[in-house]
Design a protein that fits this description.
single chain; 12 helices; globular
């Protein structure tokens, strides 16, 4: 199968490219820069120049493929609404390009976007209507004639090369001189290793059902106090509690994510597709120590792609 991948040079996208190629697929990777193009070519994929804002590049990439995996997103938390609108237009464009073909489109969403009805967020839960990001609503609009599936990622997708929330927390701890959590720190983050997530993307592409949602969850819920504890121990810093009132100053844009309790399950995904996470969990990955090497925390935070 020839697969068009947006975000192909990113943290998760590059793992998906490797997973697809190793499984015998051909990959066409979207590249918005020379550096991204070089990375995609070095991985053994074909390069398709364009961007999320260039809808014609998305359309032509999808038309040239047998299936599409959409992972790219502009993670600008200071300008989130326009980024969410760009994502919505991109998904609808990809869906329109595949309309009537029954080819597969895998759209990325997140477990943080869900209205959790039970103790764990499940594949059957619906997105929060008021949340600015409309990936799932756009996927529903794109489903006319294409086999559109959703793959929901947890807030922490971890592994070597991570430049998301955990490296941001490590940098913040270094800057502030302590590793902090909010209140009792018992709020939980679900997590998954990038290689396990990449494997699930391939399974959803190959076997996913139209209109279905799938969860990439390795750890159902890691307490934030445990995360802060590893960071403090590794950096030889005190581990401290901050009140909700102190959180905004201490964590800045991260405060909402640090305080959220969002455990999630992948039970239905495992039953439907036979997917099983095999890589280390978040705490074990942190304990390996690579997160605390200087180059691991120099990137801008907030992106899983």
């Amino acid at each position: 199968m020839r697969v068009f991948v947006t975000g192909a040079s990113g943290f998760i996208g590059s793992a998906i490219v490797r997973e697809l190629i190793d499984s015998g697929h051909q990959v066409l990777g979207l590249a918005r820069s020379d550096a991204a193009a070089a990375s995609i070519a070095a991985a053994g994929a074909d390069v398709h120049r364009g961007s999320l804002e260039d809808l014609e590049s998305l359309r032509s990439g999808a038309v040239a493929a047998d299936g599409v995996i959409h992972t790219a997103f502009i993670h600008d938390f200071s300008n989130y609404a326009p980024a969410a609108e760009t994502d919505r237009r991109a998904i609808e464009t990809l869906g329109a390009a595949l309309a009537g073909s029954k080819r597969s489109l895998v759209v990325t969403s997140g477990t943080l976007l869900l209205q959790r009805k039970g103790p764990l967020a499940t594949e059957q839960d619906e997105p929060i209507p008021s949340f600015p990001r409309k990936s799932e609503q756009a996927a529903a609009m794109a489903s006319r004639g294409a086999r559109v599936s959703l793959l929901r990622l947890p807030p922490s997708v971890h592994g070597d090369g991570d430049h998301g929330f955990v490296p941001a927390l490590i940098k913040l701890a270094r800057d502030k001189g302590d590793s902090a959590y909010i209140g009792d720190g018992l709020n939980r983050w679900p997590a998954v290793h990038r290689l396990d997530a990449a494997h699930l993307y391939r399974l959803v592409l190959e076997k996913g059902s139209a209109g279905a949602s799938y969860h990439a969850i390795g750890d159902e819920g890691v307490s934030f106090k445990d995360i802060a504890g590893v960071i403090g121990r590794r950096l030889h810093l005190p581990v401290v509690s901050k009140s909700p009132e102190q959180a905004a100053y201490r964590f800045s844009w991260l405060a909402h994510f640090v305080g959220i309790d969002s455990p999630a399950s992948s039970k239905l995904t495992e039953e439907r597709l036979g997917w099983q996470p095999k890589q280390p969990g978040l705490i074990a990955d942190l304990e390996r120590g690579t997160y605390f090497e200087p180059e691991q925390t120099t990137h801008a935070a907030g992106s899983h792609r």
